């Protein structure tokens, strides 16, 4: 050791340590990437793919036909979904006549205008009788003329859509049983048009009437989401369109669709049950300021009248209403779920 002491200077020791570290790192890198560098992994992957490939020509032909058919169905489904999305986007900006039809109201535009005028007059009279203030009466009349008729149409429209969702799975089950019994799809739709409850029966009657006019079954069913802009109606139209173009077991496809529709309905009810407590809390919190203000006005009107007689009180009321509106919108966003 004494003979090597002249060579064990700090510089030589540092170089030796650096060389050893470099060799160690190189060994670790080689051990990690050796399979990739040698090509063994690519070889094993290629051999596994060859082993999994069907051996006979008949099996390879079946697999190829299945792949081509699956790709064709996927392309048709994507094209149909794109067209249906475009239609649904138009439905979001539907005209008044379309919304009246979707609500199940046999009204014309003039009937809606008559209702708006009557609501405005009644609202103005009620506001004038209660407040004896012409500005308040005009405000109530404005709300009655422009708000109440639209709320009524939207209420009827939503209730009709809910009734449609409740009955559609039963209609699909009728079609499934008819197809399994050997009936054509058109005859099964006629049975639904006669036996189902409204509004499903009415929508399927329109499909039958459209076919009588010479339009194909696929196009006739494809028009149903225009009248009932719901995802469930769109699902039914897609299944029928794919089956008519690509073939396949219609009863199995519609049976799966019926299960999906019932599962969506069950999920919707579960969401309503879970969010009921939050909605109740939001309603109580939102109504509490108005209830307390009314009680104070009855018990001590002089105490709260400053809010209505002074400019500072008006500003306080405006600020409070603004922040209440913000809070209500936030709570509404938190307890409303899309599914």
TrEMBL record:
Subcellular location, principal: membrane
Of the GO CC terms on this record, one is: plasma membrane
Domain Type II secretion system protein GspF: start-end pairs: 175-296
Q: Does the keyword Transmembrane apply?
A: yes
Q: What membrane topology is given?
A: Multi-pass membrane protein
- Location in or out of the cell: Cell membrane
- Keyword annotations from UniProtKB, A to Z: Cell membrane, Membrane, Transmembrane, Transmembrane helix
Protein's UniProt name: Type II secretion system F family protein
Supply the InterPro entries for this chain: T2SS_GspF_dom (IPR018076), T2SS_GspF_sf (IPR042094)
Q: Which Pfam families match?
A: T2SSF
Per the UniProt record, which residue ranges are transmembrane? 12-33, 112-130, 136-153, 280-300, 312-331
């Amino acid at each position: 050791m004494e003979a090597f002491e002249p060579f064990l200077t700090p510089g030589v020791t540092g170089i030796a340590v650096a060389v050893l570290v470099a060799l160690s790192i190189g060994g670790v890198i080689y051990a990690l990437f050796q399979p990739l560098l040698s090509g063994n992994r690519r070889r094993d992957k290629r051999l596994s793919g060859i082993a999994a490939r069907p051996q006979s020509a008949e099996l390879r032909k079946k697999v190829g036909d299945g792949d081509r058919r699956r790709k064709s169905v996927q392309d048709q489904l994507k094209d149909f979904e794109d067209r249906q999305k475009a239609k649904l986007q138009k439905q979001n900006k539907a005209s008044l006549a379309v919304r009246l039809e979707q609500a199940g109201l046999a009204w014309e535009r003039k009937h809606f205008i008559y209702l708006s005028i009557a609501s405005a007059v009644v609202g103005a009279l009620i506001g004038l009788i209660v407040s004896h203030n012409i500005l308040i009466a005009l405000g109530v009349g404005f709300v009655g003329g422009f708000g109440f008729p639209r709320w009524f149409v939207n209420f009827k429209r939503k209730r009709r859509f809910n009734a449609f969702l409740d009955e559609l799975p039963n209609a699909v089950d009728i079609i499934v049983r008819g197809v399994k019994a050997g009936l054509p799809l058109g005859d099964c739709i006629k049975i639904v048009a006669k036996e189902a409850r409204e509004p499903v029966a009415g929508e399927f009657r329109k499909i039958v009437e459209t076919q009588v006019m010479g339009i194909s079954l696929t196009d006739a069913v494809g028009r149903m989401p225009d009248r009932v802009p719901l995802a469930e109606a769109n699902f039914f139209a897609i299944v029928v369109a794919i089956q008519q173009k690509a073939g396949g077991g219609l009863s199995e496809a519609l049976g799966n669709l019926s299960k999906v529709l019932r599962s969506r309905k069950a999920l919707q009810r579960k969401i309503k049950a879970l969010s009921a407590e939050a909605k109740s809390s939001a309603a109580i919190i939102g109504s509490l300021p108005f209830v307390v203000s009314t009680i104070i006005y009855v018990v001590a009107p002089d105490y709260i009248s400053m809010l209505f007689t002074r400019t500072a009180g008006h500003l306080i009321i405006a600020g409070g209403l603004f922040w209440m509106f913000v809070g209500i919108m936030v709570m509404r966003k938190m307890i409303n779920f899309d599914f």
